Amino acid sequence: MHDALIFTPADIDLSRSPLRATLGAATYVLGAFNPGFTRLPSGNLLMVVRIAEALSEPVVDNHVHAIRWTPAGYVLDAHPLANVDMTDPRQFELRGHPHRMLGLTSLSWLLPVELDPTGRQVVATHYDRAIAPAASYQDYGVEDARISRIGDRWYMTTCSVSAERHSTTLHISDNGLDYRLEGIVLDHQNKDMLLFEGRIDDAYHALTRPLGEVYFAYPPESPYAGGPAINLARSPDALHWRPLGAPGLRARKGSMPAMKIGGGTPPILTPTGWLMLYHGVETREKVGIYRTFWALLDATEPTRILRIEDTTPLLEASPTLTAPIADLLYLPTPVVFTTGIVDAGDHYIVASGEADLACRITHLPKALFA
């Protein structure tokens, strides 16, 4: 089975970063990970990689700095060090606010990276097609692309981060490589919106995972653990979404991902139903352990779950793969975050983010899903 890191921070040329034109401060690549994934008309594969670009010296004169986009260029915001909690390496928390208030230690933009048809080799890095913040609702970055090909178009959801809102945005492409921003499609924090790769009853469908400040308890005898869950929504045009009333996937008591679950790959249609890979989180330290699991949804009624595999992970983080770049690791727990899947005949090609650091390509035999 092929399983390798295909793209790492060392592969980024920061002189071609969208930030470089207006940001004078020195930066480095914190991570190149969580790629949107699809096949192009040429047969080549495309990853749209999240590049988390961080300040080389975020703390200066007893202030921690965050990068922010403005229409005039990128600027730095300074926050007094005495008022922040920096125990999470990916962000800092501002004290003294009535609501939990975060700042980011990096700003993310998206880089299209073209692979050969097997996903084993990079053939082009498209800096000229990079996707960077372009509106005030993206002033702290664009994150975590997920790509679905539906008919002759490609639909890419992204997370747009700002002080205004934490929203889901949609990009559309007619060739799989050049994307145009259509705007906000979900106006609340929902980091895992994925469109099904095909319509059901001539309507678009999507997995969603809305987050909130509080969750209500299931009855003691319920098999479900409560907390963040994977829901479904339906749309006539991929722009206006209505949640479905029936519940989707929920974390189950006693399972490995009982802390939290969320969408991973866009559901693809197989002879037995919609196959979806999703992530599950086990409670451990600040971040938790992320693994990949899978489920099968009914082809015509996707709220009906035909099978859920949440006891044995499909993918786990691999220290062997990250050993050559172990000096760059910054998360305290193992993380694999699967974000894309492509049919390759007798196997699937799966793209993941490894350790919030690099892109991983794995070939999985279809027999694993029998």
Q: How is the topology of this model organized?
A:
Blueprint: E1 3-7, E2 27-39, E3 45-55, E4 59-60, E5 63-70, E6 73-80, E7 84-85, E8 91-94, E9 101-104, E10 106-115, E11 122-125, E12 142-150, E13 153-161, E14 166-173, E15 180-186, E16 194-195, E17 204-208, E18 231-235, E19 242-243, E20 260-263, E21 268-270, E22 273-282, E23 289-297, E24 305-309, H1 319-322, E25 336-343, E26 347-354, E27 358-365
Antiparallel strand pairs: 1-27, 2-3, 3-10, 4-5, 5-6, 7-8, 8-9, 10-11, 12-13, 13-14, 14-15, 16-17, 17-18, 18-19, 20-22, 21-22, 22-23, 23-24, 25-26, 26-27
Keywords: Glycosyltransferase, Hydrolase, Transferase
Family: Belongs to the glycosyl hydrolase 130 family.
Pfam families: Glyco_hydro_130
Written description of the protein model:
The chain has 370 residues and is mainly β. The protein has a single domain (3-369), classed as Tachylectin-2, Chain A (5 Propeller). Helices cover 1% and strands 47% of the residues. It has one helix and 27 strands. It has one helix spanning 319-322; strands at 3-7, 27-39, 45-55, 59-60, 63-70, 73-80, 84-85, 91-94, 101-104, 106-115, 122-125, 142-150, 153-161, 166-173, 180-186, 194-195, 204-208, 231-235, 242-243, 260-263, 268-270, 273-282, 289-297, 305-309, 336-343, 347-354, 358-365. The strands form seven sheets. Strands 20, 21, 22, 23 and 24 form a five-stranded antiparallel sheet that branches. Strand 2 (27-39) and strand 3 (45-55) form a beta hairpin. The two termini are 17 Å apart. InterPro entries: Glyco_hydro_beta-prop_sf, Mannoside_phosphorylase. Keywords: Glycosyltransferase, Hydrolase, Transferase. This is Putative GH43/DUF377 family glycosyl hydrolase. It comes from Sphingomonas prati. Pfam families: Glyco_hydro_130.
